[in-house]
């Protein structure tokens, strides 16, 4: 049985999709704990509904970023995780943290990386007029939104789209690709060489 921890900051819809997949697909893994940096995040209630303990580390209780990250790392180490999953975790992690969990730390980003790293990806998709948008699961490296790509889900962008319709469509595909990517990890189907991920058997593209 492998251990997974999930880090969230907000709504927790990806956390919910992951918990449902773990329950319904009988993963040989348990989500041992959820960590959250915002005391009012709705995702906390989702974890509790599934009976998963939550640790809230409020950034305002720490004197600086280093102190926060050291505490987070030491708390996560107690869980002895095989995989650390960032699911809408909106804080940049220290290099020390990223290095410590290299190869075991994954993130979901709401764009087809390398397009649109950073924030406001749906707005950028609308204003640049791209016809396809989506989400990317990737390993986390020191540089933001740049790590090796595990899976991508592609959605169309329609002329009538607004922020809500587009973000809903992207989130729907996130809820498919993130649990899938975790399942591949648990089944040792992910191979990383020279910064490129291969999933064996090949199955990394999703279309809505
Ligand atoms: C997701 O859309 C995820 O891609 C994004 O935050 C949202 C969290 O939603 N992550 C980032 O922007 C990270 N750079 P959720 O709380 O409902 O899972």
Q: Give the SSE order as H and E letters.
A: EHEHEHEHEHEEHEEE
Identify the strand order in the major beta sheet.
3-2-1-4-5-6-7-10
Overall pLDDT score: 96
Helix percentage range: 25-40%
Shape: globular
Name the poorly predicted regions.
Answer: none
The CATH architecture of the largest domain can be given as: 3-Layer(aba) Sandwich
Beta fraction of the residues? 25-35%
Structural class: alpha/beta
Q: Calculate Rg over CA atoms.
A: 17 Å
Major pleated sheet:
8 strands, mixed
Secondary-structure topology with pairs:
Elements: E1 2-8, H1 13-24, E2 29-36, H2 43-49, E3 54-56, H3 65-77, E4 83-86, H4 95-100, E5 105-109, H5 121-128, E6 132-139, E7 149-156, H6 163-186, E8 190-193, E9 196-199, E10 205-207
Parallel strand pairs: 1-2, 1-4, 2-3, 4-5, 7-10
Antiparallel strand pairs: 5-6, 6-7, 8-9
This protein binds glycinamide ribonucleotide.
The site of glycinamide ribonucleotide has 15 residues, from helix 1, strand 5 and helix 6.
